[in-house]
Design a protein that fits this description.
Elements lengths: L1 H15 L4 E6 L8 E6 L2 E6 L4 E6 L5 E4 L14 E5 L2 E5 L3 E6 L4 E6 L4 E7 L2 E9 L4 E8 L7 E8 L10 E4 L5 E5 L3 E6 L6 E5 L4 E5 L10 H15 L1 H10 E4 L9 E5 L2 E5 L7 E8 L4 E8 L8 E3 L2 E8 L4 E8 L2
Parallel strand pairs: 14-19
Antiparallel strand pairs: 1-26, 2-3, 3-4, 4-5, 6-7, 7-8, 8-9, 10-11, 11-12, 12-13, 15-16, 16-17, 17-18, 20-21, 21-22, 22-23, 24-25, 25-26
Length: 337
């Protein structure tokens, strides 16, 4: 009976997911799993996290070009931690600098950034970024708002890491299903998510004044032995058996008793879209909230790689999927109803 019910539930879930439309096929080889970052001006921007390159593909023709490259010169960066669009410009948050490009990929200028500030997003004349404060006992990561000169810091939220990373037998503790801490910005708001506080979002205006906190009740979901086995199975499939075995020789996976309230989130059309745990047969729930905290809807969407982001655009769920048969990547879009 349990097997029959599980099969029936799986079929029901899969029927809830609309057939994905392939928007773009990408033959460009990536040095590592690419990260979908942004769609703006009918272009999709995809980051190669090894080479510090952003690939730009047109949604209306086959034109392709790149912006930025790994280095320290003008228009170059050692790494890229955030990409955003601002005042008809594309802004890359790199190694102690912000790189500015026009919407056609032409390099414009760069702005120096103080050490220890990363994942920077412009919001009007201010900047929201992560600031790291390390001590032997703990690491505190804060979402901090700065003015145009990176002065007058205003700490909005903070996230504390105080766990041991040196495990038994010389292995490094790798904490699975970690709490989420991050932010998104619109032209008027900064939205900070922190699952250490629950299903929590702090809503701030563009000057850092707190408008409200959203923290609805949610049902905690236990991480079962079956979930752990499923995680190892997906990791093995994604990385291959040899790389998986090497990883297990170096790392000691540590699972929490319960999943965090959500895995990650994005903001679109004045709504918060939070992707939820657990992964079930390759699918996840996507919870939708208004900026005043009202629960609006819930969808079933395909899961994607841990380091890949998704985005919502015009009520569509966009994500990258590798087509191993054709040896290329595809940009998929599904209508959210």
């Amino acid at each position: 009976m349990k097997i029959v019910c599980r099969i029936a539930c799986t079929i029901l879930l899969m029927n809830l997911v609309l057939a994905a439309k392939v928007i773009l096929t990408i033959n460009e080889p990536f040095n590592k799993t690419p990260v979908l970052l942004k769609i703006a001006n009918e272009k999709v921007y995809i980051q190669d996290i090894v080479e510090s390159v952003v690939h730009v593909f047109s949604l209306v023709n086959e034109k392709h070009y790149t912006i930025s490259k790994r280095g320290e010169g003008p228009g170059e960066s050692k790494y890229i931690t955030k990409l955003s669009s601002w005042k008809n410009k594309i802004v890359l948050s790199g190694s102690q600098k912000l790189l500015y490009y026009d919407l056609n990929g032409r390099y414009l200028t760069e702005k120096k950034v103080p050490y220890g500030r990363g994942a920077i997003i412009p919001i009007e004349d201010n900047f929201i970024c992560k600031v790291f404060d390390n001590t032997p006992e703990k690491t505190v990561i804060s979402a901090t708002l700065y003015d145009s000169d990176f002065s007058s810091p205003r700490k909005l939220e903070e996230y504390i890491i105080d766990r041991a990373y040196r495990g038994e037998n010389g292995k490094v503790n790798e904490y699975i299903f970690k709490d989420f801490f991050g932010y998104e910005a619109t032209s008027q708001y900064v939205i900070v998510g922190n699952t250490q506080k629950g299903f929590y979002f702090g809503i701030y205006d563009k000057n850092g004044k707190k408008i409200r906190a959203i923290n609805p009740d949610y049902k905690k979901i236990a991480v079962t032995e079956e979930h752990k086995k499923d995680f190892h199975s997906r990791l093995k499939n994604q990385s291959g058996l040899i790389r998986y075995k090497r990883a297990m020789q170096k790392f000691n996976p540590i699972f929490p008793d319960h999943y965090p309230a959500y895995e990650c989130f994005t903001v679109s059309d004045k709504k918060i879209y939070a992707r939820l745990y657990p992964v079930t047969n390759g699918l996840q729930k996507l919870s939708v909230l208004s900026l005043d905290g009202k629960k609006l809807n819930q969808h079933i969407v395909p899961t994607i790689g841990t380091h890949q982001t998704f985005l919502i655009r015009q009520s569509h769920y966009y994500y990258l999927k590798e087509n191993t048969d054709r040896e290329l990547w595809e940009l998929h879009a599904e209508k959210l109803k």
